[in-house]
Amino acid sequence: MAGRFTNVDEFIKFTDELVEKAKSPNTYFSVCGGTGCIANNSNGVLAALKEELDKAGITDVEVKNTGCPGFCEQGPLVSIIPQGWLYTKVKVDDVPEIVSESIQNGNVVKRLTYEDPGSGDKIANSEEVPFYNKQTRILLANQEKIDPTRIEDYIAIGGYRALIKALTQMKPEEIVSEVSESTVTLLFQLASPLSQITEPLSGPLQVNDTRLTLLKLAPLAVSV
Ligand code: FES
């Protein structure tokens, strides 16, 4: 789909499709785009991965530039999802082997996996790395799934569900009351204070309906 959504139903359909597709994603790379990894040339690794995939004619493996997963001392970090393999201290020169071994042959590149300093064991799966296996990640739970430049990634993990609920299930007064009582009031006040909307709001949603003021805060009308 390209262009703008003209009604909520179109957006709901689009959301449902993305959520469904995300349940069984194609293999993709998550390359850390945090400050520490960028300082160690993760952007070069990211570009090299895209180029190597292109060269190999592989079109169904995406490369996402994602946020920092916290293990900065081991960066640049590259994860392969959904396998869950984590490669540490990755360099541009490692990229051809990563693509040929891990993508084309389906094998872990053992030399790039984390080495436990105590046991000397090489650990391929990020969930088994001691740094991660005692953590319950809450705020960063979706870190590997979201490239912040792709709004579809956020929608695919349930983003904007609250907006859909507001537009389809709540009365205008309920929306105003919810926002007034919530901790995001300040954000709304900075952008477009709902508390200042005074005209009656009811009936089916129309284009230009005042409820679409919400869209100023939620870029629903994205090009996709
Ligand atoms: S900056 Fe890459 S892991 Fe933190």
Protein architecture, described:
The chain is α+β, with helices and mostly antiparallel strands and 224 residues long. It is built from nine helices and six strands, in the order H-E-H-H-E-E-E-H-E-E-H-H-H-H-H. The protein has helices at residues 8-23, 35-39, 42-55, 95-104, 130-133, 151-156, 161-168, 172-181, 185-191; strands at residues 28-32, 62-66, 78-81, 85-87, 114-115, 122-123. It has a four-stranded mixed sheet with strand order 2-1-3-4, with helices on one face. A two-stranded antiparallel ribbon has the order 5-6. The longest helix is centred in the N-terminal third of the chain and has 16 residues, at 8-23. Residues 197-202 and 216-224 have low confidence and may be disordered.
SSE layout and pairing:
Elements lengths: L7 H16 L4 E5 L2 H5 L2 H14 L6 E5 L11 E4 L3 E3 L7 H10 L9 E2 L6 E2 L6 H4 L17 H6 L4 H8 L3 H10 L3 H7 L33
Parallel strand pairs: 1-2
Antiparallel strand pairs: 1-3, 3-4, 5-6
This protein binds FE2/S2 (inorganic) cluster.
The site of FE2/S2 (inorganic) cluster has 12 residues, from helix 2.
Catalogue the unreliable spans.
Answer: 197-202, 216-224
Strand order of the biggest β-sheet = 2-1-3-4
Main β-sheet, in a few words? Answer: 4 strands, mixed
CATH class of the largest domain: Alpha Beta
Domain unit count: 2
Beta-strand content: 5-15%
Overall, the morphology is: globular
Q: How many strands?
A: 6
H and E order = HEHHEEEHEEHHHHH
Outline of the structure:
With 224 residues, this protein is of the alpha+beta class. 36% of the residues lie in helices and 9% in strands.
